Amino acid sequence: MTKLSVNINKVATIRNARGGNVPNVPQVAVDCEKFGAEGITVHPRPDQRHITTKDVYDIKARIKTEFNIEGYPTPEFIKLIKEIRPTQVTLVPDAPDAITSNAGWDTKVNFQFLSDLADEFKAMGVRTSIFTGTDPEIIEYAAKTGTDRIELYTEPYATLYPKDPEAAILPFIEAAKIAKHLGLGINAGHDLSLENLNFFYKNIPYIEEVSIGHALISDALYLGLERTIAAYKNCLK
Ligand SMILES: CC(=O)[C@@H](O)[C@H](O)COP(=O)(O)O
Ligand SMILES: NCC(=O)COP(=O)(O)O
């Protein structure tokens, strides 16, 4: 079964536009769970432009499913993970001013850094996932760090999918096979949508979790959150 973790960054973007508490971000997290989400994902960024540090504590206090916190492992981020102890930490190599995540780690170059972090998070009982592309060598080095999982960066899949679905999925099928063979759990995310999710799932049904935010929250403007989450879960069958 592939779990759906709803990324609620964009809900915080709307809230922050006015500086008040509308929409109420932790309440939206609770409601996503009520509507069937099997996890909540947030990606607090250094400029706190959407999810704030306070949101992370407030969400942790309210949700009952899996909490996935994504981010670049600065000392502040590592401290947050130590205090919150989420279900999963996803390490992402974003520069502080990145508009959004735009690449996976070079796990060869950053091997020692990532290995030390995987040790540290695993010792505190937090599942670790490393954001990667599909290059086999990158995945081999990810496995050597001792990480529990990788998260495949699916933007290249989403971009090519409308033109050539078979070509778009091929590197992901190969990458997932290698990761599975190496004993890694596999997550996926970035730009997954109602248009491209089912094809991804059908080709790699053993993906453990997809985290989806931008398209899902956009769809919810038309369909409402409850129908939207049901529609996304329907793509994972
Ligand atoms: C790690 C990843 O793929 C991202 O999709 C991310 O969590 C989204 O971040 P933004 O919502 O800030 O674009
Ligand atoms: N890890 C990917 C994520 O959480 C959401 O990415 P997106 O759906 O907002 O592109």
TrEMBL record:
Pfam families: PdxJ (PF03740). The record marks 151 as: Transition state stabilizer. GO terms for biological process: pyridoxine biosynthetic process. It catalyses: 3-amino-2-oxopropyl phosphate + 1-deoxy-D-xylulose 5-phosphate = pyridoxine 5'-phosphate + phosphate + 2 H2O + H(+). Its main location: cytoplasm. Its EC number is 2.6.99.2. Coiled coil: none annotated. Catalyzes the complicated ring closure reaction between the two acyclic compounds 1-deoxy-D-xylulose-5-phosphate (DXP) and 3-amino-2-oxopropyl phosphate (1-amino-acetone-3-phosphate or AAP) to form pyridoxine 5'-phosphate (PNP) and inorganic phosphate. NCBIfam families: pdxJ (TIGR00559), PRK05265.1-3 (NF003625), PRK05265.1-4 (NF003626). Homooctamer; tetramer of dimers. This is Pyridoxine 5'-phosphate synthase. It comes from Dysgonomonas capnocytophagoides. The lineage of its organism: Bacteria, Pseudomonadati, Bacteroidota, Bacteroidia, Bacteroidales.
